[in-house]
């Protein structure tokens, strides 16, 4: 979304809502049904990517997941839900049922999915009663119709009272034309409501200032290709039961993702759009990541793989630590992974309300962080409590601050003055009786800040001197806690020179 549209939304939210309705993007379609009928398979089919975990084991999906669905020319919001189970005892299944009912209340169109090969089971009938009471636009979807074994199930489906079932195969993509018709009718109905509302709401012109997202030249101070109105992707990662889901629920102010005392509740990586101080933050809740040797079940392997992909797509990664067991080996490995992926890192120490001697514990944590994570020296460390909401504003401040450093651009002139001072203060060593010459440095890219230094003999430059330069960049230009890339290249124009380069 561009800057003009962002400012327009802030100025006239009702007008933007109507325009969005006309575009059809506020039509929400929820896929519901009992466990293991193929809801996530259809979700992935409509989204066009395999973003929801799929397995033959019942109950893989636990949280409700949302994305942009597509059928031909149609665009709509699609919700994947947990399999409905009739439990009200406060168990994990009960909390999953509540998440599904929230999706039903939020949806404009409900695709009630059954397994045509298995036929109608008592849980389908119970779920049908719930949907009839919802008063929503419900369409019965009979999945897995490929083959003759589904014919009996299709006939049984009439007994649920939702009319003729739509037969499809989510796995093979059969029957999507009927879904196109269902969603198209819903979009047309939403557009008609929007047109009626638009006649009642005056849509004034909006004067906005365009915010350029470009470099401001080669000035003395570091400048940013950074737009504070752009959305920000933030992934919350950590070991199981560190409090990641609790933190997200506290931030957004609702029970958006499942929480509980059981470790490993979250499986899918769930994206939760949220607004903080006028800016959209895409929070991503991830499954807890244990040591590889302890991950044996197939489902956990899939969940961990999904969490690792979330790190790759994030811009800022919040590593959640348990204050009662901080900086275990797995925490350090995750921090190292984030640095190697080049993502901005913030360390959040959760469950701070359980710590008695806070001053001494904080001092020990800061010392351990500097000692154990030298590759991201100066990384922000925030103590908080996801349960009580303590220090959440400090966490968001740290996220925005590290994002600025991650996007920093430093002028070439300033970099070369800095390099001259570094070489004068600590010249590179002589190798084989010949002094190495550092001739030039420039910034190659941002996100993370990456630099190229041209040296007379790059292969002879010791790694210790490269670390000296990296630490100097970090301290001089305020890049603390940000991954820094430094490539060493030959400065000669001789075509017969070895073009080998090294990254540190």
From TrEMBL:
GO terms for biological process: ribosome biogenesis. One of its GO terms (molecular function) is GTP binding. It comes from the Bacteria. Residues 27-191, 232-407 form the EngA-type G domain. GTP 2 binds at residues 238-245, 285-289, 350-353. InterPro entries: G_ENGA, GTP-bd, GTPase_Der, KH_dom-like, KH_dom-like_a/b, P-loop_NTPase, Small_GTP-bd. Keywords: GTP-binding, Nucleotide-binding, Repeat, Ribosome biogenesis. GTP 1 binds at residues 33-40, 80-84, 143-146. Transmembrane segments: none annotated. Pfam families: KH_dom-like (PF14714), MMR_HSR1 (PF01926). CDD domains: EngA1, EngA2. Belongs to the TRAFAC class TrmE-Era-EngA-EngB-Septin-like GTPase superfamily. EngA (Der) GTPase family. Associates with the 50S ribosomal subunit. GTPase that plays an essential role in the late steps of ribosome biogenesis. This is GTPase Der.
